[in-house]
Automatic annotation (TrEMBL):
This is Membrane associated rhomboid family serine protease. It comes from Neolewinella xylanilytica. It comes from the Bacteria. PANTHER family: RHOMBOID PROTEASE, SLR1461 PROTEIN. The chain crosses the membrane at residues 20-42, 62-84, 91-107, 113-132, 139-157, 163-182.
Amino acid sequence: MLSKRNLSNVIKWPLGLLAVMWLVFIVDYYLFGGLLSAYYGLHTRQLAGVPGIVLSPLFHGGWGHIVSNSIPFVSLTGLLVFFYPRLWPRVLASLWLGTGVLVWVLGRSVTHIGASGVVYALAAFLAFSGFFRRDFRAIAVSLLVLFYYGGMIVGILPGQEGISWESHLLGLIMGVLGAYTYRGELEDHEIATRRKKTAREKQQRKKEPFLDPDAFAKTKKERDNEAFWTRLKELSERERLER
């Protein structure tokens, strides 16, 4: 059941993070002419690029760049908060930082900026989590994400000018790893479902007898039959002796 607190988080956190992203973009674009993104972007395998692991998703190269990332970021973050109310803070932090670390280690020697890596990580987490968790609601979310964002797979192909395809690819990998890692971290409805299943199985085991109900009855019948034939044999033997 959707609580007021969870509904508030679904609205507050995705829009709040997006507002921060837009604020950073406007300040950098209009006041600093892109110098902040050039300085604090993710510079691979350089000590100066370490802050970019956290900050690079906040920077964007232009209006088209930030607009293209805004809608999927808000929608996917909203789905994460809605369907994983207990788990989402750790998942989002893990995907955000994990994608940055992978790009810092494995990416090309260029400055990587933009939230697209996090977007790919969120999409992959939501798409694969349902299959790893084997939960009906999570599977429904997985199918929904695959339906609407399946075309994003094209973005992992190399050779696209001005696009950090490594962020896309490594974000996708990070999302799959996150889905597998957190598969055992259950939400409230999953815990309730498992408890009901366990209780139902215990009830069924109580109702099922250890032995066939007729097992002892059949044994008694067999003993009675044996006693009957034994008695009959004794009577026959006695009659023969008397003759």
